[in-house]
């Protein structure tokens, strides 16, 4: 008994040392990254403080004089986020199914679908926005396309992982009665993952709305275009007014998204 207790104590001490070493390595890594990025340059940070304060003082009080011109850009921003999320829904369903190991017809299709999702996730939506602006011109369309395709990478990945972790017993029961592959997916898999899919889509819509506010910076329309226009002419009071409008809209969208998730759950 004494030997067993001593072995337990040694194992606990060994685990404790391993945890401490890993935390120390993580701390060193964080410090190195902070130093490399300039976060630990206290002199530079201190010199930037007065300039930041000056900028903030120039932004107040907010100037809502041109607020009547922001109605259409706000609607464009909202529609851009909804359209982008709809694109994500339509495309992530088939790609996510093919990217799930327990549904994909073979390994080649599985790897191809996973590769597509990785590519779409790796390209930032702003870069996609630049590409689509060059392809289809200015406006909300390139923004919706950029947000939608970038969203497919994330939504499809979550969808595929939800399918892979679903309960196999209902799937096996449906297969046992002679159901086809499509019927198995429709009646055995989708009912299990549908709540997670809806939850992910709502979260993505909230993200897309916030992202769509900056798509105007690359010419994709929306309230972000008005924000950039004010920044270019250094109308900082109008900039703060637009930021407040964006804050209100983001709060409303987040609140609506929370209500939708509660209804689904």
CATH class value of the largest domain: Mainly Alpha
Q: State mean pLDDT (0 to 100 scale).
A: 84
Count of domain modules: 2
End-to-end Cα distance, whole Å, is: 51 Å
- Radius of gyration equals 25 Å
Q: Which architecture of the largest domain per CATH?
A: Orthogonal Bundle
Structural class: mainly alpha
How many helices does DSSP assign? 10
Q: Could you state the CATH homologous superfamily of the largest domain?
A: MetI-like
Task: Report strand %.
Answer: under 5%
The CATH topology of the largest domain is what? MetI-like fold
The number of distinct β-strands equals: 0
N to C succession of SSEs: HHHHHHHHHH
Biggest pleated-sheet summary: none
Helicity range of the residues?
over 70%
| Global morphology | globular
Q: Give start-end ranges of low-pLDDT stretches.
A: none
Quick structural overview:
The protein is built from ten helices and no strands. The chain has helices spanning 2-37, 42-58, 71-98, 107-122, 125-136, 140-164, 168-176, 181-215, 223-232, 236-264.
């Amino acid at each position: 008994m004494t030997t067993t207790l001593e072995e337990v104590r040694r194992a606990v001490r060994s685990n404790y040392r391993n945890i401490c070493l890993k935390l120390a390595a993580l701390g060193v890594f964080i410090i190195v990254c902070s130093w490399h990025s300039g976060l630990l340059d206290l002199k530079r940070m201190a010199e930037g403080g007065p300039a930041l304060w000056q900028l903030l003082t120039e932004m107040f009080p907010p100037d809502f004089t041109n607020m009547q011109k922001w109605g259409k850009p706000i609607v464009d921003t909202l529609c851009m986020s909804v359209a982008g999320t709809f694109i994500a829904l339509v495309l992530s369903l088939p790609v996510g199914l093919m990217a799930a190991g327990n549904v994909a017809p073979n390994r080649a299709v599985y790897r191809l679908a996973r590769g597509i999702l990785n590519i779409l996730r790796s390209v930032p939506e702003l870069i996609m926005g630049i590409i689509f602006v060059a392809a289809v011109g200015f406006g909300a369309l390139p923004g919706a396309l950029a947000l939608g395709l970038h969203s497919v990478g994330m939504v499809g990945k979550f969808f595929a992982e939800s399918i892979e972790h679903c309960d196999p017993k209902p799937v096996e029961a449906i297969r046992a009665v002679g159901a086809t592959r499509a019927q198995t997916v429709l009646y055995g898999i989708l009912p299990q993952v549908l709540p997670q899919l809806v939850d992910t889509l709502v979260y993505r819509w909230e993200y897309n709305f916030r992202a769509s506010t900056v798509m105007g910076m690359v010419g994709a329309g929306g309230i972000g275009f008005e924000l950039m226009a004010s920044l270019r002419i250094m109308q900082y009071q109008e900039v703060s007014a637009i930021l407040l409008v964006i804050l209100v809209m983001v709060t409303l969208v987040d609140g609506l998204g929370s209500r939708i998730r509660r209804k689904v759950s």
